[in-house]
Design brief:
The chain has 256 residues and is α+β, with helices and mostly antiparallel strands. The protein has six helices and six strands; from the N terminus they run αββαββαββααα. The strands form two sheets. A four-stranded antiparallel sheet has the order 2-1-3-4, covered by helices on one side. It has a two-stranded antiparallel ribbon with strand order 5-6.
Length: 256
């Protein structure tokens, strides 16, 4: 059913003598009826105007020339109208301002349905926004915690590697001291009981050779779980049977 200007509907009601009417909302629910036989068409129009001034939205008007409850219903017309057509005649409503200039939470009776839905949607959008910001803040906090944990683990690994390197270097001076002999310096740190109370040895080698020595010991430690025991065996062989030791070293050289 097409919408018509409400003023056109009023004009038709007066001209055709419609004094009986039923007003329904767009869901088909009856919101007002006029069945008074003493009312004139102008009175019916005035009654509809008064209703529309205090309402909002679209409505259906069923107008009749005779009372529908008495036999012959006479002429009948249907009009779909909007309260917006009476905007200049609508009574201004009092609005009790709440926070931020919006109607307060207890002023629903003074807010039109359209305004109320608008405020509801605005509040919902604000709530959704705050929820998203809270979730983003939580995720950012978790990312920061994870980054801090990773940095801590990295530093801890670096520290452990440094400690292991120091132990291996101490072991080198201890073992090589027993292999080659030499001047003594303060005792080196122990690894699993090896090197306890063994003095450090001045090996008399260059810094580059020291670096090669350290790397060789690290390689042995990573690949031979018994490298300490094996080094001790080499040291004992070197001191007890130098010729066999030299032969063994020569044989190893042939394989590398």
């Amino acid at each position: 059913m097409s919408k018509v200007n409400i003023k056109y509907a009023f004009k038709q009601m007066i001209e055709q003598g419609f004094s009986y009417f039923t007003i329904k909302d767009m869901a088909g629910q009856i919101v007002m009826q006029q069945r008074n036989d003493d009312m004139s068409p102008q009175g019916a129009v005035d009654a509809i105007k008064d209703f529309m001034k205090h309402s909002d939205g679209m409505f259906q008007i069923e107008a009749r020339t005779k009372n529908p409850g008495v036999g012959n219903n006479g002429i009948r017309r249907h009009f779909t109208v909007s309260t917006e057509d009476l905007v200049e005649e609508r009574k201004p409503r009092e609005r009790h301002e709440g926070i931020s200039g919006h109607p307060g939470p207890y002023d629903r009776g003074n807010v039109s349905q359209r305004d109320f839905l608008g405020l509801y949607e605005e509040a919902k959008r604000e709530n959704d926004k705050l929820h998203r910001e809270l979730q983003e803040a939580k995720l950012a906090h978790l990312r920061d915690m994870n980054e801090a944990n990773m940095k801590f683990l990295s530093l801890q690994n670096d520290f452990n590697r440094e400690k292991e390197s120091d132990k291996i270097t101490g072991l080198a001076t201890s073992v090589l001291g027993s292999m080659f002999g030499g001047g003594m310096t303060p005792s080196a740190p122990a690894i699993n009981g090896i090197g306890d109370n063994s003095p450090e040895v001045d090996l008399g080698i260059s810094p580059s050779e020291e670096a090669r020595l350290e790397q060789a010991l690290k390689t042995l430690a990573a690949n031979d779980p018994n490298f300490v025991s094996n080094l001790e065996k080499l040291a004992k062989l070197c001191s007890s049977n130098k010729a066999m030791y030299d032969q063994g070293v020569q044989m190893i050289g042939n394989f590398t």
